[in-house]
Amino acid sequence: MARKSVTVLVAGSWGTALARVLADNGHAVTLWTRNEAQAKEINEQRRNSRFLKEAELPEGITAVTDMEAAVSGADAVVFVSPSSATREVARAARPYLRRDALIVHATKGFETDTLKRMSVVLSEELNRPTEEIVDLSGPSHAEEVIDRHPTTVVVASSRLDRAEAAQDLFMNDSYFRVYTNSDIIGVETAGAIKNIIALGAGLSDGLGFGDNAKAALITRGLAEIARLGNAMGASPLTFAGLAGVGDLIVTCTSRHSRNWRAGSMLAQGLALEEVLEKMGMVVEGVRTTKAAQRLSEIHSVEMPITQQLYKVLFEGKSPSEAVGALMGRVRTHENENLNL
């Protein structure tokens, strides 16, 4: 593939890991950050110590703090900002974007106030049709990608040519395999809701429960993801793929998962504010729980795990009480309303 000029917004852990993939693929990569000290460290020491302490970054990555310098002339722009900041970052980037630039995002969450998916937010702020936006998702921890461990993801867009362009940009033969998918609604929904289930998995482990409990949580969590996704217009097949069960497994079982760690700390008695302060990084599952609770009401979808986690996070319910509420629910048939 021809060498491209690619800009990654912003320089968090996942943005930095994707920047390495792109640089390894021979592209000229610009990594944007608001933080002057962070940009200086990346450029001079080839480190991003706040997010990926041990990783040494290749020379093909240049960090900048000026948005115009970052975005102007880029063949592709990859948004990897937290969901709460994506609209602001897109608004700042819009004046400098080439009209034919490929737009990709790798953010897993909903906009809390509007309940919109990230492709819709980007479409609105960049004045692009939603079908031109591509979502990159799937089971992928930045800590493993930065070390070039084998990873497989999916890029989703309702326009196959856009998805294939993103596939060509990111895929390599050594460690980063990319599939295409036309169901961006399902891929975005799965990527967001799995963070809620990962909070629950961390909470379960923090309470000292075993593999039986976590396996049940993951399985029934997948049912919740599928129910909401289907109600929003997704394909059921998406939830059996990389963006669905694949991402759910890795986020619920890995020591790298911020959401799992946050859930585990909650189970140990820490208040939500203490957990977020100790994490020092965005925990998307917290915001997503609030959004998913509202979406379940709007679409009349039963999401008991999400509901109980909402009560733990925002209404002061104890984790042990939440588990009791889930175990004591009215008996039902496993496949009822599963839609998977």
UniProtKB/TrEMBL annotation:
- Where in or outside the cell is it found? Cytoplasm
Quote the record's binding site residues for NADPH: 13-14, 34, 108, 142, 258, 282, 284
User: Which amino acids does the record list as binding NAD(+)?
Assistant: 142, 258
A Pfam entry, by short name: NAD_Gly3P_dh_N
What coarse category fits the chief subcellular location reported for this protein?
Answer: cytoplasm
| Enzyme class, UniProt record, top EC level | oxidoreductase
Q: Look up keyword Lipid biosynthesis and say if it applies.
A: yes
For the ligand (substrate), the binding residues are: 108, 258-259
Which catalytic residues are annotated? 194 (proton acceptor)
Task: List the record's Gene Ontology CC terms alphabetically.
Answer: cytosol
Stretch forming the signal peptide = 1-19
Care to name a GO molecular-function term for this sequence?
A: glycerol-3-phosphate dehydrogenase [NAD(P)+] activity
Keyword list, A-Z: Cytoplasm, Lipid biosynthesis, Lipid metabolism, NAD, NADP, Nucleotide-binding, Oxidoreductase, Phospholipid biosynthesis, Phospholipid metabolism, Signal
Ranges for domain Glycerol-3-phosphate dehydrogenase NAD-dependent C-terminal come to 183-323
Q: Enumerate the spans annotated as Glycerol-3-phosphate dehydrogenase NAD-dependent N-terminal domain.
A: 6-160
Q: What does this protein do?
A: Catalyzes the reduction of the glycolytic intermediate dihydroxyacetone phosphate (DHAP) to sn-glycerol 3-phosphate (G3P), the key precursor for phospholipid synthesis.
Concerning its family, UniProt says:
Belongs to the NAD-dependent glycerol-3-phosphate dehydrogenase family.
Q: What protein name does the entry list?
A: Glycerol-3-phosphate dehydrogenase [NAD(P)+]
The protein's organism comes out as: Cohnella thailandensis
Gene name in the database record = gpsA
